[in-house]
TrEMBL record:
The keyword NADP is annotated on this UniProt entry: no
Region of interest (Disordered), ranges: 231-255
Protein family according to the UniProt entry: Belongs to the ROH1 family.
Chain ranges passing through the membrane: 292-314
GO cellular component, one term: membrane
Keyword check for Protein biosynthesis: no
Main location: membrane
Membrane topology: Single-pass membrane protein
Localization terms from the record: Membrane
Entry-linked InterPro entries: ROH1-like (IPR008511)
Key words of the record: Membrane, Transmembrane, Transmembrane helix
Name this polypeptide is given: Uncharacterized protein
């Protein structure tokens, strides 16, 4: 904008130069140059008005006055540029958030059928959620002046309310992980009974393995029933840490962070509560919130999907996958998220998964290996033939791989679920404090 810069140094001795610039800018077409042209017109009009008010001999004595006109126009231009830069930075931040969410779900949807819903995939999902949560938190604090307005204030309240409901889901998932850990211990008993390092497998070893496998089958069956009927104690991640006074203070910040859930509590109903009234913002809401409505909708959808995927994968009370995701296709992350939703639903409809207590790949492998081992143990006759002993050792080896995957994956998974729980609590508490609220406002 060299030409615009030069306008600040025009003198009254250059009226014809100004007229020449005015004529030249009449031919400009682009948006940016149109803005420059309007500035030139404004300078020219100011110059004409100033000339008409001056006496005929005033050209030579009014250099300071004309310089003032040029400087005032330049000052206004700089203010406009600063305003445009600030608005542009805000838009860039919101667009970047949408793009990052889309990239993360594209990455998750790239998983093959064998990796989908495995412990490693669920951990990856939780990692992506934590990243989205942090980026969203930064957006809220960078736009605190907008969040404080009534239009965005309602959206913030709804989001924090959904977050609180997600905490109970985290507790239920943690309890489901504990249940898988119990199955892991039973698998260890079977592996110890049928130790592949021994030269031969005796009848006593098979009896010990058979008893453990029977316990595992009963536990798996009970867990399937508990999906709709049985409730159990569901300790909060934060309930065992700190003094009673500290625990009481923390409970004040998260109403439904109770250490247990009621007998009527259902993961399916909780998911429906999280997704209740979750719809894409209208154009007037987007304008009123300066685009923040889209960010709230995006993060709420991510929260709902992650909680739904956890309930689908991990055994928990009142499991159910009938949650409707209403996401307009124009959102960049809609396609990969809806694709994952469809793939998980298709997985749940498979014959071998239809009555499963959880879609987690490792849970499926536990059920599968337990079934094969039971069939083998029931049909075995002594003394063992070489073929039967070879088959038994192969089954034990497969069971050992499943045991190893569960043992190595459960602890990191539980830590991540705990981190999600605490991050949600911390973000909500920070939000309530930063935007001048108390828990009594809920």
């Amino acid at each position: 904008m060299f030409i615009v810069h030069r306008l600040g140094f025009l003198t009254p001795s250059s009226p014809f130069r100004l007229l020449s610039l005015r004529t030249h800018f009449l031919s400009l077409k682009t948006e940016e140059l149109t803005q420059v042209r309007s500035i030139v017109f404004e300078v020219f009009d100011s110059f004409e008005l100033h000339r008409l008010r001056m006496p005929a001999t005033g050209w030579e004595g009014s250099s300071a006055s004309f310089n003032y006109i040029g400087r005032s126009i330049l000052s206004r231009r700089r203010e406009q540029v600063y305003s445009m830069d600030a608005a542009g930075s805000h838009d860039v931040e919101l667009d970047a958030f949408q793009k990052k969410v889309a990239e993360r779900f594209l990455n998750l949807s790239a998983a093959g059928n064998d990796d989908l819903l495995s412990i490693s995939w669920v951990r990856k999902l939780l990692d992506e959620f934590l990243c989205c949560q942090e980026e969203f938190r930064v957006i809220l604090f960078n736009n605190s002046s907008i969040v404080g307005k009534s239009s965005a204030d309602r959206l913030m309240e709804e989001f924090f309310e959904r977050s609180v409901k997600a905490l109970d889901v985290c507790n239920a998932i943690r309890d489901g992980i504990q249940q898988i850990r119990q199955w892991q211990k039973i698998l260890e008993i079977v592996l110890c009974a049928l130790d592949n390092n021994q030269r031969s497998l005796s009848e006593g070893q098979f009896r010990r393995a058979q008893k453990a496998l029977m316990d595992l089958a009963i536990s798996l069956l009970d867990e399937k029933d508990s999906g709709t009927a049985v409730a159990r104690r569901n300790r909060s991640f934060g309930s065992n840490n700190g003094s009673p006074k500290e625990r009481h203070r923390r409970s004040d910040h998260s109403r439904s962070l109770s250490w247990s859930v009621s007998r009527s509590w259902s993961a399916a109903k909780q998911l429906q509560a999280i997704g209740n009234n979750l719809t894409a913002p209208r154009a007037n809401e987007i304008v009123a919130t300066n685009g923040l409505a889209m960010a709230f909708f995006t993060m709420s959808s991510v929260l709902l999907f992650v909680m739904w995927a956890l309930v689908a994968a991990i055994p928990c009370q009142g499991r159910g996958l009938h949650v409707h995701f209403s996401i307009p296709r124009q959102y960049m992350w809609a396609a990969p998220m809806l694709s994952l939703h469809e793939r998980i639903l298709e997985e749940s409809k498979k014959r071998e998964r239809r009555n499963s207590c959880g879609l987690l790949e490792e849970v499926h492998q536990i059920e599968r290996c337990a079934r094969f081992m039971n069939e083998m143990v029931d049909s075995v006759q002594f003394p063992l033939t070489e073929e039967k002993e070879r088959e038994a050792r192969q089954r034990v080896q497969e069971l050992g791989l499943v045991f190893k995957a569960v043992k190595e994956g459960l602890d990191p998974l539980e830590r991540q679920v705990r981190e999600v729980f605490h991050r949600i609590v911390r973000s909500r508490t920070e939000g309530l404090c930063s935007f001048g609220r108390t828990d009594h406002d809920d």
